[in-house]
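Protocol step 6 of 9: fold each sequence in the batch and record its structure tokens directly after the sequence line. For illustration, a two-sequence batch is reproduced in full.

Sequence one:
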Amino acid sequence: MKSSSEITKAAIENFVREVISSVGENSKRDGLKDTPKRVARAYEEILSGYSKNPEEMIKLFDSNGFHELVTVGNIEFYSLCEHHMLPFFGKVHIGYVPNGKVLGLSKFARIVQAYSQRLQTQENLTKQIFDLVYKKVSPKGLIVLLEAKHLCVSMRGIKNDGFITKTVLKKGLLKTQSGLLNQFYKDIERSN
């Protein structure tokens, strides 16, 4: 009996063979004969976020009285657009003001990775990261900013290669105190 992973890989391999044939190529040609297996393995890795629970990645520590802005910037991500299944990629920047607890720094990158390795829209990815951090850390203020390049815009349709999309969510002190918001933007500008 095949495992569900083997069945899924076989389905993807069959689909890729069909795509290759439907564009007039020979799926048995030397350069293409292993392509269905490579694509199935790539999708298994690229879409591995479905097997990860980001809530389990949370590791909180006492802030020891620290209650100033913490900025974690330039977290690289790669995802597949749920509309065209083409890549979009970029950087995530997160700023928060602790309310008694801080999140382990590596956990930000793990959360971003778990959510980005799914079929996504940039807006949904921004909201998922924001909602989880806000729910688990309960900060006094939070901002999540994503900057991304979408290959569905660069490669097809309008074919605009310089197109960058930014999405942002903010709450609490980072929404009401312009000084903190300005500090966040200065922090991420310095890190680029």
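Sequence two, same batch, same settings:
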Amino acid sequence: PTSVAYVAPPTQVRPDSNAAAVASVEAARRKREEARGLAQRDPQMARELRIGRPDLPRNFDDGGLVDLNSAPESVLIQTLGLSSPQAEEILATRERLERFLHPDDLMNLAELDPATYDRIRDRIVLL
């Protein structure tokens, strides 16, 4: 009797999913840095591009920024992962102040806890 050697099918090479995930996060960070730089140089253009407003139609990819001076409560909850009471406090403080001047205002004036602030600070912009 002749024996037939088993030949395993060729394995399909998959791209390293960890590398892809890291590359995606790094790309979003670069986009946020670019958008923040543009907002500092030209706040009006940033508003026209709707930086930080994922709730509005737009063509500019800001890497997931949220403008705390104009974004609605739903964006604060969905995009930043804030609780409803946290988002409500931020909106009440924004209304009282008319606008946030510095990101630290979230802790100092809107009573956001430091751990939450640390988690979202890379995602916020003030226009």
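Proceed to step 7 once all outputs are recorded. Observation for sequence two: The chain has six helices and two strands.
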